[in-house]
Amino acid sequence: SNIHSRGIRELYAWQGRGSAGRVSTDMIRFSPDGALDISTDPQDLPEQGDGKNSQSGAMTRCTNMSLDRPGIASTRYGSRKLNATPIDPDISLIVEQSGNRTEFAGSTIYLNEREIETGLATRDSIWFAMQYSAYNVMQQDIFALNGTNRVRVRDDVVTEWGIAAPTVAPVLTSDLDYAHTYDWEPDETDGDYFQKITTTRNDYERLYDWEYRTLLGLYEVTADEDEYAYCYGFEVAASHVQNIVYFVKYTYCRKDDDDVLECESNPSPPAGMYLRSCLGATYSQPTDDQVTHVRFYRTLGDGGDFYYAGEVKIAEEHIVLERDDLALGTLVETDHDRPPVGGFTMGPDYNGSCFILRRNQFWFCKPKQPEYWPPTYYVEVGSIQDQLKAGAILSGQVFVASERQIYLIQGTGALSFCPLEMSAQCGTVAKRCFLAVSGHGIYHLGPNGLYLFRVGGDENVTDRQFAPIFRGETVGSIPGMRLSQIARCWLTHYGGKLWFGYPSGTSNYPCEVLVMNLATKRTVHYSFPFEVRCVCVDGKNRRLLGADERGYVHNLDDSTAKSDHGTEIAWQIETKEFGGLRKYFPRYARYDVKLDSGAIAAGSVLLDGNVEQTHALTESRQTRKRLIRTCAGDRLSVRISGTGRVDIYGVEVE
What we know:
Blueprint: H1 5-17, E1 27-30, E2 48-49, E3 53-56, E4 59-63, E5 65-66, E6 73-75, E7 78-81, E8 93-97, E9 100-105, E10 108-111, E11 114-117, E12 128-132, E13 141-145, E14 150-154, E15 157-160, E16 171-173, E17 180-186, E18 193-199, E19 207-209, E20 216-220, E21 228-232, E22 245-256, E23 260-264, E24 271-274, E25 280-282, E26 293-298, E27 307-313, E28 318-320, E29 344-349, E30 353-358, E31 361-364, E32 378-380, E33 388-394, E34 397-402, E35 406-410, E36 418-421, E37 434-437, E38 441-446, E39 449-454, E40 457-460, H2 463-466, E41 490-494, E42 497-502, E43 512-517, E44 523-527, E45 532-538, E46 543-548, E47 553-558, E48 563-564, E49 567-568, E50 570-575, E51 588-595, E52 600-607, E53 610-617, E54 626-627, E55 636-643, E56 646-653
Parallel strand pairs: 1-3
Antiparallel strand pairs: 1-56, 2-3, 4-50, 5-6, 6-56, 7-47, 8-9, 9-10, 10-11, 12-13, 13-14, 14-15, 16-25, 17-18, 18-19, 20-21, 22-23, 22-24, 22-26, 25-28, 26-27, 29-30, 30-31, 31-32, 33-34, 34-35, 35-36, 37-38, 38-39, 39-40, 41-42, 42-43, 43-44, 45-46, 46-47, 48-49, 50-55, 51-54, 51-56, 52-53, ...
């Protein structure tokens, strides 16, 4: 019992190695320049050595640590709330536009957390959106849908996406509320024609000088010297024909400053009447607040096509159609249908086409006109049983995915679009996990991992290092996925990294995040003290936004924040297990750790998975020896953990 501990080490070393005599203790060195791997047996992770000394950068834990600097592991940046007062917690989409945040929360829409629309849809519906402007619109709009609603957002104004056609035919009249007659009389002085008006209100008649064969002018009602009325008409071919029926339709329009026509609905049902002296029309008032004008279209004497005949502002309930046949405008458009009620939208691409996925249908709008979706502008993709979930645009090509498969949409327009099934191992099980990254491919989520699709190949990029997560297994500090909520995972590309969020434990939305540096291919694990329902890259302000389950919007990667809005960031890192056919008898450890003010850190030496010695680290970069009590084991690892901002340079154990 009084044998010196060094003698015990020598005895165990002799027994373990089968060699006689005195041997030196192995030196274990760790520098955080390797990869995090929870799939491989901790002993089989890579290391380098000369038979006595071993060195490795491989890790079995790396939680809330960043590996962006070579050879240094640092506490990740903290997060910061952007709104002091929570909004609707059902946020499923954040769209950044010119530095402003538009948040879609089920039935409510916010601008920078200020409510701008409510009562739109049932709760727990996922919104998707795109940003675009028609060829004749100067300002970019947000077009969003959630399977129930379709909206257009411009600044703080929310309207319907597209304008629904009026369902009520116009009411046509002779324009005057009393009877009148007219005839033509020549002017004896210059040959011009006059019209003589006779009204039923009195016997007064007055002549007015009108252009030849054009019934446009003003006459005075003498019952009241201040009362005037207008009488309009139009020239019919070469002579006035009284017994031909003329038909009229109207459309609802949105114009910018009464000048540029931005959007027009399909036309109403027609109404017709015999031509008399003039043709007046009234229309059904729209319920859509975005409508600013009403346009009218009428037929020629043959009752065929409808041509533009005039328009009025929405405040004017009545119009008199005075244009003659030769002055009529363009034909009425009949393909201005509103977009389908789909569950996903993206674009633009292919010369200004925008896209919507609905069931197994791939819809597209008229080029450069995102509010016009003709009813034949779609192609079916796959079977109705395998409905489309998401889409992405990569290198000018459009890809869509169901849960089972990925399809390339070939073609360049309405007459040539067709789907081509790709050689992918799967599609995506989550709508928000189908992400195109330029220069890489399309990252998508299968039931057993995260995949990278390139034309001609599809690779599981998480199976080698993180397979247990997708089996729902917790390994060390990294929780397994709550598989029942896999459809709520999300994926985004920010700061040269791929961010993949997944729910764990009892959480319904992601609170765990795998962050892959696409340049170094090294992945770390972040854990947030709140559920992140959705994320958004704020390109204007260079930040990653995330909405939590309480209705707060966070900057998730704030370089100035040392905590998660007051919650200290708990971090840890652990080496591989150094082991094999040998015994370890550690005597001391050295830790090279830099601590910021207020940070707390501790280093632990583990043998066979059990903590044998823990050292409090209270001094920055003081690498003095820390003694380890007498112990022995087959597998040795080191874990460093704590809270606050630290930089870890390395560990040495002898």
